[in-house]
Design brief:
562 residues, seven-stranded mixed β-sheet, five-stranded antiparallel β-sheet, 23 strands
Length: 562
Amino acid sequence: MIIAIFIFLALSLMNLTLFQGEKFQDLSNKNCIRLIPQCGSRGKILDTNGDLIVGSSISYDVVVLPQEREAMKKTFAGLSGILGISTEELWQKFRKGYSEPSLPVAIVSNISLEEVAALEERKLDLDGVIIQSTSMRSYPYASLASHVIGYLSEIDHWRLTKLVDYGYKTKDIVGMGGIEEKYDYYLRQDDGGLQVEVDHQGRFSRVRGFRPPHSGKDVQLTLDLRIQKITEAAMEGFSGAAVIMVPQSGEILAMASFPDFDPSLFVKKDNRSVSGLFSDPQSPFLNRAVSGQYPPGSVFKPIVATAGLESGKIDMSTVFHCPGSLQVGRREFKCWDTHSDQNLVQAIAHSCDVFFYKVGLAVGAQALHDYALKFGLSRPSGIELPYEESGFIPNPIWKKIYRFQKWYDGDTANFAIGQGEVLVTPLQMCRMMAVFANHGSLVTPYIIKAIDGQDVSVNHRRVAALHIKQTVIDNIDKGLRGAVADAKGTANVLADLGVSVAGKTGTAQNPRGLSHGWFIGYAPYDKPRYVICVFVEHGAHGYASAVVAKKIFEAMLQEGLI
């Protein structure tokens, strides 16, 4: 019996040491080992000149090591007196942040330097309390370029399931929207930390290990802060978008979308303001420059003119009479004015709908579709921003297959003036106008200049020749210049600037309210340096967008940027 007892004890000891030894060692470590994270700084976002757009600042947080309940009661009582927070609220924050015994819990964030000093003075009376410095995202220009930048928030379940294999874990702070999301892998810091040993009461005993944190890589954009500020100031009070680009390369110098938002609200954890943004019917998180899809209206006409000239259906001697409307089938299609006889240059300058109805009918719907695709429509431009939309260009086959309907001449007439089913983004229209500014090449817009000091713009810079006759480009350019220079031109409001501008206005009918206003153009006319697109939601007329463009060019002239 005694031998059997000793055999049982020996087997039990063997089981505890050999078979379950690692389990109990792990439990022991969890009781005496604490992991204190040390955060690195997220990479900075810079403009094309190296000026800071988004950076990081130091925040001091109060972190508590889990310990016995009585000891924590005493600790929380001391913290309550210094921080002015009730013990009930401290307990609530501790329970919310607690995950396992080995991990400390942050209960108060971003305390003042005076509170840091007070806590350090009473350090011996506050067992298990650590003042931890962390990196906090800072936005020196508040909402400037907010749609390009994006914001930071705690990782959601959908992203976690996709990124867990790349080292992401629960409660990680990740980029949402814009560059913060698209380039989170580069901007993201590699956190380090301390491994410390505590006694049975949770008091610090010794440091067992240290892993230094590493900051994220800086990302430099092509945005010019000076031009971005000017653009956003001119768009203030409107809903819409504006894009300024270098026509020869596709380099984005400014991109604004309104209404916008302040990314710092997510850092401050201002839940009420954030909830208000998400429920706002104006959709402030929508980047209208790349994700908003709208009918282009008359800014589509340069594509129709190109199709007419290239196909030989019209030439520079072609004149159409505009009596103010055109009968197509059983329907009368109106022009916004009575223009009498118009050649191509005059029709572009005066935005004569009747002229383009006739050109569209002569060319045909399928040819209009093909030329629209040639100019980069109905597909993403390829810019390095998330959630870019494709827009849509219809054709007779699509309507027959998906709508089970026949394509009529009235559909072609609507198509020719950028109405009907046609949808585009402001960035696509800016890209289209760049073809006429750079004499025939389709550029790929890009917004990333360098990562961690290494120039990567060459990887994004793509220019494709469209093989359009130079005479066609030159003749359409004359019409675009006439829209500004001609006294009756639709963009004549820009005529008195100190720089020559060419462009096209557009008024796009909207079934949900006032018409949208467009202006696309470039400057200077002789040697284009900038191509611009201004879109104003419910602007009623393209004139509103032309006025915004004028404000932008005037401010750029004053700054010596043109």
